[in-house]
């Protein structure tokens, strides 16, 4: 073993050590590291064995200089839900690491007049090779064109198709919200209410539309609605309003799990049994759904899988490869303890709050 073998307390192994152990030139090792096709299978395997034996990790700076890239992937978001954001970051990170890239995350002040320039400024400062754009940032008007003008490859995740990105991974939230309505209808509920997300966000608009459309298709009038902002406080405030009307709803659909947790909190404080007197459904499928008592019926969104797929497509674009397919992931309703059959024979539609 060379003197700089980390197991002997020396410095980190270098490309020189790999070349010496494999019995090849430094140039040949460099070609393997840069995935060049100009190395035969046997030599490639010998070099990989040397890399593994030495636990060699190529310098990101050296690779960047050799390839004229930073090997950095940017992820821009404006999600205050740490549970969702953690899953997304892990998904982006898994694929980026597998492909030899690092990830830099940046929160964008969506709604600020300078939000678009904020994204471009981040890309220029960090010198990212490409961008994964999460909603609601992905839905900002003019952003795809601005990224194109700066020659920044970008893949977006959104609830609706958007022109101008390298690709868009669609999250079928309208259909999933319709599944929530059909679930509650199948349980016999007719006095149904909804706590929407902020109606300046496409995700919230799509969830509301899908829910309302499914109720109307079943011949049930539109739900009583209270708008929230996806926070726990908003869920509690909205639940207080909805549970004060007469007759009270027998089911409430909250447009995310955090607001649904607020509904459960208010129901418990008022002695309203869930699901016997009130069914509650959320949206996201975050870990909080399993932590609540009763466990929350929710729509599971595979955040990590979606982020991983978007990152894979982005790196394919960056490296000039044929991009992977961006199939829309399945958003599935996961029944749990918080929803059950309506026990109210007069369930015929609530009045307005």
UniProtKB/TrEMBL annotation:
It comes from Sphingomonas bisphenolicum. Pfam families: LacI, Peripla_BP_3. InterPro entries: HTH_LacI, LacI/GalR-like_sensor, Lambda_DNA-bd_dom_sf, Peripla_BP_I. This is LacI family transcriptional regulator. Keywords: DNA-binding, Transcription, Transcription regulation. SUPFAM superfamilies: lambda repressor-like DNA-binding domains, Periplasmic binding protein-like I. Residues 338-353 have a biased composition (Low complexity). Residues 13-67 form the HTH lacI-type domain. SMART domains: HTH_LACI (SM00354). It comes from the Bacteria. PROSITE patterns: HTH_LACI_1, HTH_LACI_2. Residues 329-353 are annotated as: Disordered.
